[in-house]
Design brief:
alpha/beta; 2 domains; 310 residues
């Protein structure tokens, strides 16, 4: 089997894949023109969706494509073909995303940033630290990553609530409600963690009306997709005190334009789309598992339903 690797870090992927599955023939390049020449020779592609989408636009198409990202938005652009098998990266981001969430949740409870200000001002800051125990956490998007985040948060004694496309029973959540219940659910949460994918149903969810439903003491963390948030409404909600703060990892436009209000918004911390980077070693392990299933004519982990968009 011949595999095309279209990745920024293509050399690392080629080395790891060569070690894990030496029987595979690997074609790759850092040059886009060379990739386009190689693409017609490969039925299977592995890589990042923006580079893969560029090859699709040029008229090339695989039988199966494995994305190295959890998100596949570039591959769902209008006009691109959808008559091939597409799998997204699943099962490899849970722990690193949980660590990201915990970093800023604990930082919020312990008021790390304001203590740093106190130090800069040479002011002894002896406020007692708070704890996550007893806090209510709403995870918006309880799929593969959201489930794993919930499991990592469990030992901290939080009460877990979730939002999914439809209501369902799902441990360890006390309740998983449908998307229509989001206003009610944010109203009882100390932390709102957005992990929703980019689909038409998830655009502009976090608007002025929803932010008014938040508890004034709540922290909002968005590591899902930037299009879920109405930027101006979040800035205004923070100014008005509808929520205590926001940690924003993903934005509508990245890198964020210099004049964007997020740079100077009160109570908002930007983390530059760094929450859950892909581990090449973990990604190659997932891909090799899927190669075995593909060769056996079986179902693939993370297979995308184009109608749903994930």
């Amino acid at each position: 089997m011949r595999v095309l690797i279209a990745e920024q870090d293509h050399a690392t992927y080629a080395r790891l894949l060569g070690e894990a599955a030496p029987e595979l023939e690997i074609l790759t390049s850092g040059d886009s023109a060379e990739l386009a020449r190689q693409a017609p020779q490969c039925q299977v592609w592995l890589g990042q969706p923006d580079l893969l989408a560029s090859l699709l636009r040029q008229g090339h198409q695989p039988a199966w494509m494995q994305s190295t990202w959890a998100g596949i938005t570039p591959l769902l652009a209008e006009g691109l073909p959808r008559d091939y098998r597409l799998t997204r990266a699943v099962g490899i981001f849970g722990q690193v995303m949980a660590e990201y969430m915990l970093t800023y949740m604990l930082g919020h409870e312990r008021e790390v940033l304001s203590r740093l200000v106190s130090q800069v001002e040479r002011r002894w800051d002896d406020r007692p630290g708070r704890t996550l125990e007893g806090r209510k956490v709403l995870i918006v998007g309880t799929g593969d990553i959201g489930q794993c985040v919930a499991e990592f948060l469990q030992p901290f004694g939080v009460t877990l609530y979730g939002i999914a496309s439809t209501a369902r029973e799902q441990a360890p959540f006390v309740e998983v409600a449908g998307l229509a219940e989001l206003p009610r659910m944010v109203g009882q949460a100390d932390y709102v963690l957005n992990l929703l994918p980019d689909t038409p149903a998830t655009h502009d969810l976090y608007d002025a009306a929803l932010f008014k439903c938040f508890q004034p003491s709540a922290l909002f963390i968005n590591a899902g997709r930037g299009v879920a948030v109405v930027d101006a409404d979040l800035v205004e909600a923070l100014k008005e005190g509808h929520l205590a703060g926001a940690v924003i990892d993903v934005c509508r436009q990245e890198p964020l334009p210099q004049r964007h209000p997020f740079w100077t918004a009160w109570g908002l911390l930007l983390t530059g789309h760094s929450s859950a980077p892909t581990s090449p070693a973990a990604m190659v392990r997932l891909f090799v598992e899927n190669v075995r299933e593909y060769q056996a004519g079986q179902g693939l982990r993370g297979e995308v339903d184009f109608a749903r968009g994930y």
